[in-house]
Amino acid sequence: MGDSFHTRGVLEVGGTKFLIHRLDALGARAARLPFSLKVLLENLLRGEDGRRVTREHIEALLAWEPTRPSEREIPFMPARVLLQDFTGVPAVVDLAAMRDAMRAMGGEPARINPLQPADLVIDHSVQVDVFGTPDALRRNTEIEFERNRERYAFLRWGQQAFGNFRVVPPDTGIVHQVNLEYLAPVVFHRPENGLQIAYPDTVLGTDSHTTMINGLGVVGWGVGGIEAEAAMLGQPTVMLIPEVVGVRLEGRLAPGATATDVVLTVTEMLRKKGVVGKFVEFYGPGVAGLALADRATIGNMAPEYGATIGFFPIDAETLAYLRLSGRDPARVALVEAYARAQGLFRTADTPDPVFSDRLELDLGTVEPSLAGPRRPQDRVPLRAGRGAWRKALAEFLKKEVDGLDRKEVERWLAEGGQPIATAPPAPKTLGDLAKTVPIEMDGERGQLGHGAVVIAAITSCTNTSNPSVMLAAGLLARKAVARGLRVRPWVKTSLAPGSKVVTRYLTDTKLMADLERLGFHLVGYGCTTCIGNSGPLPDAVADAVTRGELVAAAVLSGNRNFEGRINPLVRANYLASPPLVVAYALAGTIDFDSEHDPLGADPQGRPVFLRDVWPSREPTPPGDVRGARVLALFGDSLTTDHISPAGSIAKDSPAGKYLIGLGVQPKDFNSYGARRGNHEVMLRGTFANIRLRNQLVPGVEGGWTVHLPDGERMAIYDAAMRYRDEGVPLVVIAGKEYGTGSSRDWAAKGTLLLGVRAVLAESYERIHRSNLVGMGVLPLQFLPGESAASLGLSGRETYDVEGIAAGLAPGKRITVRARGEDGKVQTFQVVARVDTPDDVEYYRHGGLLPYVLRGMVATA
Fold this sequence. Notes:
alpha/beta; 5-stranded parallel beta sheet; 34 strands
């Protein structure tokens, strides 16, 4: 290896010495470069061998003129290669063929291996065949494996046969999110000639959205399969020294705007500017206010705005994300030390680099937006959504019907779609084009017309990597469910997150259940609707669209919406943030005025508007409990063993019946402990202990209760689900020492998921009281000397708990009103067992995890 500029130096981190190629040895010429070009410069210094990489290459980059496009080429060797299954399979096939050729030439086939580390993530093969049901993930996965059995077997062979090659299996996540959360080291280190050499992580990927990793401070972009194979085999990519366009970000996002809206704005802005073949680098004070996930969202869309990369330098937020995503502390320390030593770490005091050109964006001007109906750069402000749609529809109809004048169609649409006398002769009249098609689904009748939203998909790496927009979707769903709204029956809904991390935080914050109530069930982990794997429309919908020759619409949280890409029966495709995907599923049409048109009506017939359910960055404080029923009434010493699912699963229990319904044989049930990760099983096993004694069903042992007011006896789980469907909150009443025993998290989780808002007991075991608060369940305690028995409570009353909405404080007294079956009201005081200011905050946010997540979002 050559070192004609004498840049080799030693960096010591945590007692380990690393060989690095110091950029500061090159002086001001290197210091002035954009961060992304500094990474390319290090790549040249490390690769200098006098043949592929020469001193002249390094000099050419040091002589970079920002105002004049360079005509000089330089070689670039990525630190690793990233493959997805569609484009990765041919690469593995070629490696296998090279082994055969090596054998035929008398050589050793085992010598054929990737020379650069290569990862292949299987993520493009899952399709949304099944949706809107709790078992959609399982059934779609089964279909996926059946369709791709041979291909998956081949990839499994490849992982075993080749060195330096890893395969991330199906049902794990989207390649770019897996790359962001797990694969990217940000700073590499490897042994070389007895030393450890450290250098920046760089990557070439066979998917254009490899650029998502730019948000983590990693230079990388998408290439074709042949170029990726060449890199795997040690061949550099030759490229012109790029122009670098700087985008200065200022301000902070206004309320209501999301990272999706930022990226749609950036895409529109940079497409107008023209950045094809250029690097884009973000800088300015606004960068510090963007969470890493927001940066990744912007980097992801670089192909849509035409840039080679959309780069964010390493900074404190990068380090915070590495810690959050579970990276080794030694790795994080190396990233920080290396980036600082190399001038690759950006702070508020870092001088701005020189750029080929500059643009500015005040984040405070970003507003909620869509993009469509055909291209991601065609941004539409949400407030102008209806007007933009009607202009687009006029264009669609003009193409479809000979002889119609576009201005006449636009005028006709603006006047409400009524026929007009001046319409020119045509095979079809304007009135014919306005016809709707009757449809009946799930016992509900409706009319489909142009603009009917038939696909609403939370999908793709662009947004499902971003907790702020995913939580916003869940919060909007929660508010919509609380107002009694439902998704229109003709909408095919789906949730395809980029990784299992997403479902964990949605489940832990209880938002998954709200999304599922609107039909956004988990359908798979992978790139689905965004690449056309939306699956078929339901027969009734497909028939209506075909018969009516309708211009149907899809709304998806993806990155591409080109014609024919999403579904062959859907001609108008709009990109939107996850919460807007949910909103348009409720509205059922893209012909929707977000200011003046209601999403639907509540059970009393009152209109519910988007502004009524749109989530804010402030958490809504918990309200008082009204009209609650008692799920169970217990005596003293109810333990967490009584509450939490434990031991074997009985075949006639709700959990056993659930497993049998999934095709699991009783001999394969295993135990509740072994199925702790499955909330469906654990929920059904909460309060299901065979020795449980619920005083609402005297003389009976086990997980039984009565549903009130009808008094029907049923399993506690079944009663809780019926109460949930009726919109009735629940409480549990108990005696002394409630929650003694082991610290079982599911004793609190299951209580919450059954719909219990508060527990009223004479005293609590310390850990379980804390766990209840941590899950957002309010522990209330009778005053000394009082109990359910002394107050004459039977458990058949309805309960109001007042004083929560006014704000809690440690030890605050709360008023409870119990209305008996005879209409008589008993009023008494209890103590709110939120014992510390932290307890108050956790409960106010709905639990510990929502508190932490909202804290992260607030700093974004």
